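Progress note, sequence design subtask.
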C-alpha cells in the first residue's frame, strides 16, 4: 500500500517517496497513466511535482504541478484554464473550483492552503472511495480516502481531510459534466460508448444511488447547446492549425471565445 496524506502536519513520508522517485522524462508524459500529481515546491528547491502512475512508479519533476497538468491536458485538446473559465462564465460562479472533465476522464483539483500550485487526482482510474464522518450536532466529513489499484496487486490511497466540501462539489459537477459529454458523444458518434462507461465511476455513487436525475443534483445547470458549441469551437481550432496542440497563437481570447459561443453569426460561419 502506498499512502499519501498531503495535508498531514509532517512531510516525512512524502520526503521518503521523493528520495526514491525517478526523474520524469517530460517527452514521455503522454505515455503515462497518471493517478496523482502532488505539489512539492514547499519542500524542495529543485523539484516542483511528484507524480504517481498506474504502475505504481513515482517520478519527480522540476516543473510545477500547474505546468505539468496543462502539458498533460493538452493531449486531450485544451488546458484547464480555458475549460474552467468557460464553466465559471456559464455557471456564473467565478470563484468555484471546477474539475477537468474530458469525455469520461475526470481530474479533480486539490487546492492546498497557502500554496500557489494545486495537487491533481485522476478519478478516472478510481477503484473505491471512502468517506469518514464524525457527528457532533451535525454530521461532518472528517476525511475522504481515494483508493486506486496499481501494479502487482498493490493499492494507492490518497487521503484528503481539509476543504472536503470543495472536493465533493467537484465530484458533483463532474457527474453532471460526464453526462453532458455522453450526450455530446451520442450526437457526434453513431455508436458511442455505453453510458455506464461515463457514469460508472465509484465516486458518482454519491449521486446515482439517490436515484435522482443528474440534472436535479445541482442548482446550476449547464445547457447542452452551449456545451456542444464550446467543444465544436475547440474541434474547429484543432483542425485548422498545423500545430498539434493549442498555442498562444491559436487560442481565442476569452472575449472572442464567448462571442463565438453566444454569437449566432460567428458560430454559423464555423459550421
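Output:
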Amino acid at each position: 500500500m502506498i499512502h499519501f496524506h498531503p495535508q498531514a502536519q509532517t512531510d516525512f513520508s512524502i520526503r521518503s517517496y521523493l528520495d526514491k522517485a525517478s526523474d520524469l522524462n517530460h517527452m514521455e508524459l503522454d505515455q503515462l497513466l497518471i493517478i496523482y500529481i502532488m505539489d512539492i515546491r514547499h519542500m524542495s528547491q529543485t523539484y516542483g511535482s511528484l507524480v504517481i502512475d498506474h504502475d505504481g512508479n513515482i517520478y519527480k519533476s522540476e516543473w510545477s504541478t500547474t505546468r505539468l497538468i496543462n502539458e498533460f491536458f493538452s493531449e486531450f485538446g485544451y488546458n484547464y484554464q480555458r475549460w474552467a473559465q468557460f464553466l465559471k462564465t456559464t455557471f456564473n460562479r467565478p470563484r468555484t473550483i471546477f474539475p477537468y472533465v474530458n469525455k469520461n476522464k475526470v481530474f479533480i483539483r486539490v487546492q492546498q492552503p497557502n500554496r500557489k500550485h494545486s495537487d491533481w487526482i485522476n478519478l478516472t482510474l478510481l477503484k473505491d472511495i471512502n468517506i469518514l464522518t464524525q457527528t457532533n450536532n451535525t454530521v461532518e466529513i472528517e476525511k475522504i480516502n481515494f483508493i486506486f489499484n496499481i501494479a502487482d496487486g498493490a493499492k494507492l490511497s490518497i487521503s484528503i481531510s481539509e476543504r472536503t466540501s470543495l472536493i465533493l462539489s467537484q465530484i458533483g459537477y463532474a457527474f453532471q459534466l460526464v453526462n453532458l459529454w455522453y450526450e455530446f458523444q451520442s450526437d457526434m458518434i453513431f455508436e458511442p460508448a455505453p453510458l455506464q462507461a461515463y457514469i460508472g465511476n465509484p465516486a458518482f455513487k454519491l449521486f446515482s444511488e439517490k436515484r435522482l436525475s443528474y440534472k436535479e443534483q445541482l442548482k446550476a445547470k449547464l445547457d447542452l447547446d452551449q456545451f456542444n458549441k464550446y467543444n465544436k469551437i475547440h474541434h474547429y481550432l484543432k483542425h485548422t492549425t498545423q500545430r498539434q496542440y493549442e498555442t498562444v497563437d491559436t487560442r481565442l481570447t476569452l472575449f472572442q471565445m464567448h462571442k463565438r459561443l453566444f454569437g449566432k453569426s460567428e458560430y454559423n460561419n464555423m459550421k
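Confidence is low (pLDDT under 50) at residues 211-220, 241-251, 264-271. Work on this subtask will continue into the next period as scheduled.
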